Amino acid sequence: MNSIKAKLKLMPDKNAEKSPELLFSTAEEKEIILAIGEAENLTSGEIRLHISREADKDALEKAKAVFNELRMHQTKERNAVLIHLSLGSRSFAIYGDEGINQKVEENFWEKTKDKMQEFFIKGQMKEGLINGILDVGERLKKHFPYQSDDRNELPDEISYGE
What is the per-residue pLDDT across 76-126, written as a single tens digit (0 to 9) for each? Predict the structure, then answer.
């Protein structure tokens, strides 16, 4: 399985721990959603961001569960990616579907994780997510280039959960 998890080196705002929807302003949320669209314009892959409050024992297992709940495995090429941010356990995971895992090297997501972590350490959550999302699009385009008949198979908005 070509997925990765990491600890956030950032203490989220106390309000965000109460409700993940309060982590970003409406304008910041729009910036993240625009980044998802921009990244998806590079690749036929699909990208989603899910933010939860729950303290997960294993961010990667939670990401896999959310991936299935969001029906991300139903893309035509099985090339969807979920970035799952767990505020409660201060961790995040990048989970790619089996179509991706069949084509990429074992540590495919390491660079993306490291790039995101650099921003998170500085307290720049939005910037870390945007840079990670854009990196996912850039990295996927080699294996899953954008096609002229490509359609957006999954919603771009951020999903939230407990």
Answer: 999 999 999 988 888 899 999 999 989 988 888 999 999 999 998 888 999
Paired tokens of 101:
């895992």
Q: Determine phi and psi for 127, rounding to 5 degrees.
A: -65, -40
DSSP per-residue string spanning 79-109: -EEEEEEETTTTEEEEEE-HHHHTTS-TTTT
Residue 48 parent element (H or E): strand 46-52
Kindly report the pTM of this predicted structure.
0.90
How far apart, in whole angstroms, are the C-alpha atoms of residue 69 and residue 35? Answer: 23
Nearest partner of 50 among 77, 69, 31, 78, judged by Cα: 69
